[in-house]
Amino acid sequence: MQIFVDADACPVVHVVEKAAKKYGVAVKLLCDTNHILNSEYSEIIVVGAGADAVDYKLISICKKGDIVVSQDYGVAAMALGKGAYAIHQSGKWYTNDNIDRMLMERHLNKKARRSSKCRIKGPRKRTEEDNDIFEESLEKMIRKAMEL
Questions:
Q1: Which pLDDT score is estimated for 56?
Q2: What is the mean pLDDT of residues 23-32?
Q3: Residue 29's pLDDT is what?
Q4: Is residue 4 within 8 Å of residue 61, measured between CB atoms?
Q5: Residue 30, beta-bridge partner list
Q6: Single pTM value for the model
Q7: What tens digit of pLDDT does each residue of 117-146 get?
Q8: Are 3 and 17 in contact (CB under 8 A)?
Q9: How far is CA 130 from CA 70, 145, 147, in A?
């Protein structure tokens, strides 16, 4: 088992590495050439800056039983299709039971944004409590993945 992180602008890389070290799990951080990362723990995989290049690379190398960290519902759906676990940076697990609903909500929200002339506010600032919630959820997922 390995942890793959869709690391372009991912705010929880340090939390992933902390949990991975605790359990002795390898981490691969994937980013494009616009988001070069450094890590003393993780392997960095840099791909071209093309649209969705990181997503496709991540899905091509993850395997059944691996863990994928991504805020992209499409990446999560493809990871689940390969038998991998998938988790959002909020700590929410993507599952076969919730992914279809999440993809539909994403589609409807995108459609609403396109038809609206109103500016929609972005996400609130991330807190240390958010990181703690994510870490607890990720560790639970790691333990589950290690059982199999």
A1: 94
A2: 97
A3: 97
A4: yes
A5: 6, 45
A6: 0.88
A7: 666 666 678 999 999 999 999 999 999 999
A8: no
A9: 15, 22, 26
Token pair for 146: 């290690």
Say how many residues make up the chain. 148
Say if residues 86 and 93 touch (Cβ distance below 8 Å): yes
- For tokens 């991330």, name the residue: 126
**CB under 8 Å to 70, separation ≥6 — which residues?**
5, 6, 55, 58, 76, 79, 86, 88
Q: How confident is the model over 46-100, as pLDDT tens digits?
A: 999 888 999 999 999 999 999 999 999 899 999 999 999 999 999 999 998 888 7
Domain boundaries, the chain: 2-147
Residues 6+ apart with CB under 8 A from 62: 2, 4, 68, 79, 82, 84
Fold of the domain spanning 2-147: Rossmann fold (3.40.50)
Instruction: Give Cα separations from 28 to 12, 42, 76, 119, 123 (angstroms).
Output: 13, 6, 16, 36, 26
State residue 122's pLDDT score: 65
